[in-house]
Specification:
This protein is an alpha/beta fold. It is 40% helix and 16% strand.
Length: 211
């Protein structure tokens, strides 16, 4: 199917679950870039809409993603580790869509909005630890199929066994072997299934656009 490159304000309103006038306001306020057709209707380019959704941390519908684009969430309370992993992964594939958080509570919130294909999950986190985050993922039918690579600087056999029991895709100790990690990410994402139900907002049949 040919990739859709432009979107109407109506289609965007359906993706974002807002009124068409709200989308028009985003455009008028300069938050969302758009152009006008000869007939005076607003149109938004795919890359501009994607940038807008990323900037404001809004759910990204599958129609905006190319096949090569996969979504990754990195969860680690060390900013240097986050930056290192992001750079290594984007060097491997600039098409990856990556978000990063520093604690378990934010990880849960980000999963609900971003719906990543894969999570690189540190085990030792402030607040809600990595094992609890992983257990919560497995309890929810909408998130149980998200792939997870657990990483830790404090390996404990009992925790490792629990991760393996729950079906972790891989378990790595710090300091990380970046070559091995990026290769495992590539292997896992190549076989990653489509995102779970509830992630994609499907627009209703097109209607006449007045703004």
């Amino acid at each position: 199917m040919e990739k859709k490159e432009t979107f109407t304000t109506y289609e965007i309103s359906q993706f974002c679950n807002v009124f068409v006038t709200t989308v028009a306001n985003w455009i008028d306020e300069g938050k969302l870039s758009a152009y006008r057709t000869p007939g005076g209707h607003r149109r938004v380019l795919r890359q501009d809409l994607l940038a807008f959704l990323e900037k404001y941390k809004m759910p990204i519908p599958e129609i905006l993603l190319e096949v090569r684009e996969k979504k990754l969430l990195i969860v680690d309370d060390n900013p240097q580790t986050l930056d290192m992993l992001q750079q290594a992964l984007l060097k491997q594939n600039p098409g990856y869509l990556i978000r990063m958080v520093g604690n378990g509570f934010d990880a849960g919130k980000e999963v609900a909005v971003f719906r990543p294909h894969l999570i690189i999950l540190d085990i030792v986190l402030p607040g809600l630890d990595g094992l609890q985050v992983f257990q919560n993922l497995k309890k929810d039918p909408l998130t149980r199929n998200i792939h997870v690579i657990a990483i830790t600087g404090h390996d404990e056999p009992s925790i490792r066994e629990e991760f393996v029991k729950l079906g972790v895709d891989d378990y790595m100790e710090k300091p990380l072997n970046l070559e091995r990690l990026t290769q495992r990410v590539k292997e896992i994402l190549e076989k990653a299934a489509p995102l779970g139900p509830g992630n994609v907002a499907k627009p209703s049949p097109s209607s006449n656009e007045a703004v």
